[in-house]
């Protein structure tokens, strides 16, 4: 009887401790999610205000007390159409230009920097360390020093006013990105390349 009573008391104590732990864990989780929800509201608030202001008609007061989150009279969806089709402010053309330049730079940087970074990390050839040192020294040259000479060069060869000066240099590599890719490739084990060669990869 004594042993059975002790076992029952121990089981009840364990059950109470388990319940207390679950309550503490649930309370902790609730507080964490409430804090994260508050942060989400704070982050989304400016975006919601921007969207609400964009839907308001012309000459409608934006800053009012109390603030009006949504238009009272009607929703002016035509504001977005006017923004994209206005002849004096061709924002659609600006967006297309940005996409062309960004995608071109991403494509050129990935191709050129990955090839050079792989060569510095894996291939063994004469002068590799010297060329890599020259590459690192090239990073010490400020961009402001090269800005005017590059502009004059592109202007003389007739590229001024085109996409080429903004896209073509990315195909010639970037010292910083080459360094990053080279350091990353050094972390990859060479056994992976040996296994790939055995499997027929070339």
Task: Characterize the structure shown.
The chain is mostly helical and 202 residues long. The protein has 2 domains: 84 residues; 108 residues, Orthogonal Bundle (MetI-like fold). The chain is built from 8 helices and no strands. Helix 3 crosses helix 7. The longest helix is centred in the first third of the chain and has 53 residues. The protein starts with a helix and ends with a helix.
What's the helix and strand layout?
Layout: H1 2-54, H2 78-85, H3 91-122, H4 128-138, H5 143-156, H6 164-167, H7 175-187, H8 190-198
Short description:
By secondary structure, the protein is an all-alpha fold. The chain is 71% helix and 0% strand. The protein has helices at 2-54, 78-85, 91-122, 128-138, 143-156, 164-167, 175-187, 190-198.
Keywords, separated by commas or semicolons:
single chain, 202 residues, mainly alpha, MetI-like fold, 2 domains, 71% helix, flat
Tally of distinct domains: 2
* Overall CATH class of the largest domain: Mainly Alpha
Could you name the CATH topology of the largest domain? Answer: MetI-like fold
Biggest sheet architecture = none
Helix content: over 70%
Any idea what the radius of gyration is?
31 Å
Per CATH, the superfamily of the largest domain is MetI-like
Count the E strands: 0
Q: From the coordinates shown, what is the CATH architecture of the largest domain? A: Orthogonal Bundle
Count helical runs.
8
Provide the residue-averaged pLDDT. 83
Per the principal axes of the C-alpha atoms, what is the gross shape?
flat
What is the end-to-end distance?
A: 78 Å
């Amino acid at each position: 009887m004594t042993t059975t009573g002790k076992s029952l008391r121990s089981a009840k104590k364990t059950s109470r401790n388990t319940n207390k732990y679950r309550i503490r864990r649930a309370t902790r989780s609730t507080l964490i999610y409430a804090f994260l929800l508050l942060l989400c509201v704070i982050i989304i608030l400016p975006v919601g205000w921007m969207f609400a202001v964009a839907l308001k008609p012309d000459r409608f007061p934006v800053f009012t007390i109390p603030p009006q989150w949504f238009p009272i009279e009607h929703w002016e969806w035509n504001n977005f159409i006017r923004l994209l089709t206005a002849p004096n402010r061709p924002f659609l053309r600006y967006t297309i230009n940005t996409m062309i330049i960004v995608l071109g730079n991403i494509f050129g940087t990935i191709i050129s920097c990955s090839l050079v970074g792989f060569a510095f990390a894996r291939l063994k050839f004469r002068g590799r360390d010297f060329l890599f040192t020259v590459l690192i020294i090239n990073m010490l040259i400020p961009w402001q020093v090269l800005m005017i000479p590059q502009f004059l060069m592109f202007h003389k060869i007739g590229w001024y006013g085109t996409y080429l000066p903004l896209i073509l240099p990315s195909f010639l590599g970037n010292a910083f990105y080459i360094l990053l890719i080279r350091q990353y490739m050094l972390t990859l084990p060479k056994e992976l390349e040996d296994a790939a060669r055995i499997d027929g990869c070339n």
